[in-house]
From TrEMBL:
Signal peptide: none annotated. Keywords: Membrane, Transmembrane, Transmembrane helix. It holds the Pfam family DUF4013. This is DUF4013 domain-containing protein. The chain crosses the membrane at residues 20-42, 72-96, 108-132, 153-176, 182-206. It comes from the Archaea.
Length: 232
């Protein structure tokens, strides 16, 4: 799946146009609306790839794209707040327990708090792609927080493998983007384009993985698991 994910956007009809628009949106993501457009595009990638449609979407119907992206961003934000809150509580508790003078015991407490917070961040990063994939499939904001449906997929080795591959793509893309950012102006733009390309490739993997596993997350009947997938 790695080679398919890398060539997914390249083989589309508007590969250059889509990559440039996506890269510029990431570059100006601090304005939020461009960031919503990026995540709206990711939602479309997930919706298509989860049903084995490997034709990359374009940046069209920008209103719907923005709305879908805002919802996907809200899901990401909600999951990211969990480790932030956990870290604040843990570090705050150690600080209060030691009276502001940590010492050796406090240092150990801070270390343990850091490890738990890091694990929570990894957990949130593991869950959030599946949450957005479920939202992309069902077009309901609540689908991103459907614990029962997500749990069945998250517990599989197939999802873990797909997530690790997607994570690796993002890491490599971020590294290349960082190197390009060292070149003023042109390098910054190219770095943003590479980062967008890597994000799309990563969610191509997530989309196909979700499409393969989604049936197991549906409620079972007396006849066994349903093989139907909800309409996109």
């Amino acid at each position: 799946m790695l080679s398919e994910s890398v060539t997914y956007l390249k083989d589309s009809d508007d590969a250059l146009k889509t990559s440039i628009i996506g890269g510029l949106c990431l570059l100006f993501g601090f304005l939020l609306i461009p960031l919503f457009l990026v995540w709206g595009y990711v939602v479309r990638v997930l919706a298509r790839t989860s049903r084995d449609d490997d034709e990359a979407p374009g940046f069209e119907d920008w209103g719907d794209l923005t709305i879908d992206g805002a919802k996907a961003f809200a899901i990401l934000l909600a999951y990211s707040l969990v480790p932030v809150a956990a870290g604040a509580v843990l570090f705050g508790s150690v600080w209060l327990a030691t009276g502001g003078t940590p010492g050796t015991i406090g240092a150990i407490g801070f270390f343990l708090a850091g490890m738990v917070t890091l694990a929570t961040f990894v957990g949130a990063a593991y869950v959030s792609p599946a949450a957005i994939a479920n939202f992309a499939s069902e077009r309901r904001l609540g689908a991103g927080f459907d614990v029962d449906e997500l749990r069945a997929v998250l517990a599989t080795g197939t999802y873990a493998t797909g997530w690790l591959l997607a994570f690796g793509i993002v890491v490599v893309g971020s590294f290349v983007s960082g190197v390009l950012n060292a070149v003023p102006l042109v390098g910054t733009v190219l770095g943003a384009i590479v980062a967008f390309y890597a994000l799309v490739a990563a969610y191509y993997v997530i989309g196909h993985t979700w499409g393969d596993l989604h049936p197991v997350s549906l409620e079972t009947s007396d006849d066994g698991p349903s093989s139907e997938r909800p309409a996109v």
